[in-house]
């Protein structure tokens, strides 16, 4: 398959459409994570449908002092990766195609959810993201658009925008793709030196530590609900091998079985890994670590049940990285 490189919406609209059009929006510098999105789009669009990959480095989402100027532009390589993954079209508009007349005076506001966490660290970032996503949805006119779950807050905001503003498009989230050592794939990984990359592994390692703590707690409480509140219950809890519970098994045996694990303990387990990484050379400079409700990205508290997301953002050297893992608390587990 040879992907057509188009620069204008007019050329894209002139293409005959038969099946569904699936769009994958990128800023270029494509990697295996993007390729996974494109392959998923190909499956959704089917043989008769069309897969469009957009490549546009959006200036509105970069703040002062961020890496707009050095963000990698690799269109020739991007075209090859898109072709190999199953794209029909690479839509790579120039700035004046997306923003005729310069930066738009009317923009989409991300609202309160866009001011938390990533939005607090990068003021105005999500306003710029949603504005360009809205523009590209209009320019490409897809039936379905796919986004990576690594940018969890971005994905949540796009879904909210599409719902609140009645966009006629289906939004699909695709799981994060990781390298063999656990590091989430990102176009910014290429900025890392060998030493910085070793430090950067702490992001995924912290999330995995939080996930493991959560899994141990959920398993412990599932057993606790099954065993009567007697000394036998304490022995059963100890047999699980969960060290913290085993150290005080008799106290746990007297407690009423809880329906959830402790979110605070999950965060503590992740934070310990990040604190160790802060002492490495080069060090990891933590921006935020949070366990949030994905509906509004507010932090959850003990007693929470349902879907949650454990998020981390940090800087290693001059490179800022983000990562996250979904978790489920309570009976839904």
From TrEMBL:
Broadest EC class assigned to this enzyme: ligase
Residues that hold ATP according to the record: 27-34, 148-151, 177, 185-188
Gene Ontology CC, one term: cytosol
Active site: 34
EC number: 6.3.2.1
Residues engaged in binding beta-alanine: 61
Any Gene Ontology biological process: pantothenate biosynthetic process
Principal location: cytoplasm
InterPro entries hit by this protein: Pantoate_ligase (IPR003721), Pantoate_ligase_C (IPR042176), Rossmann-like_a/b/a_fold (IPR014729)
Residue ranges crossing the lipid bilayer per the database entry: none
UniProt-annotated binding residues for (R)-pantoate: 61, 154
Note: The reaction proceeds by a bi uni uni bi ping pong mechanism.
Family: Belongs to the pantothenate synthetase family.
Function: Catalyzes the condensation of pantoate with beta-alanine in an ATP-dependent reaction via a pantoyl-adenylate intermediate.
Descriptive protein name: Pantothenate synthetase
Source organism of the structure: Streptomyces acidicola
Organism phylogeny: Bacteria, Bacillati, Actinomycetota, Actinomycetes, Kitasatosporales
């Amino acid at each position: 398959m040879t992907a057509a490189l188009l620069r204008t919406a007019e050329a894209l609209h002139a293409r005959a459409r038969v099946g569904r059009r699936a769009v994958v929006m990128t800023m270029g510098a494509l990697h295996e994570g993007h390729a996974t999105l494109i392959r998923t789009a190909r499956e959704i669009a089917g043989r008769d449908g069309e897969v469009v990959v957009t490549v546009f480095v959006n200036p509105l989402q970069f703040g002062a002092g961020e890496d707009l100027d050095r963000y990698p532009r690799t269109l020739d390589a991007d075209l090859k990766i898109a072709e190999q993954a199953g794209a029909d079209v690479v839509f790579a508009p120039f700035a004046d195609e997306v923003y005729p007349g310069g930066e738009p005076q009317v923009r989409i506001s991300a609202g309160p959810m866009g001011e938390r966490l990533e939005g607090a660290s990068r003021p105005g970032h999500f306003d710029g993201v949603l504005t360009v996503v809205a523009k590209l949805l209009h320019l490409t006119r897809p039936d379905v658009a796919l986004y990576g779950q690594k940018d969890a807050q971005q994905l949540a905001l796009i879904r909210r925008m599409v719902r609140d503003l009645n966009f006629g498009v289906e939004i699909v989230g695709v799981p994060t793709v990781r390298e063999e050592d656990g590091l989430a794939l990102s176009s910014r990984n290429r900025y890392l030196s060998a030493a910085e990359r070793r430090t950067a592994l702490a992001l995924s390692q912290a999330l995995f530590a939080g996930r493991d703590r959560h899994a141990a707690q959920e398993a412990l409480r599932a057993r606790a609900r099954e065993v009567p509140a007697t000394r036998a219950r304490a022995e059963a809890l100890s047999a699980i091998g969960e060290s913290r519970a085993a150290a005080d098994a008799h106290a746990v045996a007297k407690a009423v079985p809880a329906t959830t694990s402790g979110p605070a303990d999950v965060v503590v387990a992740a934070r310990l890994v990040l604190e160790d990484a802060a002492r490495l050379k080069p060090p990891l400079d933590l921006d935020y670590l949070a366990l949030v409700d994905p509906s509004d990205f507010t932090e959850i508290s003990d007693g929470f049940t349902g879907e949650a997301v454990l998020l981390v953002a940090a800087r290693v050297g001059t490179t800022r990285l983000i990562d996250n893992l979904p978790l489920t608390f309570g009976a839904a587990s």
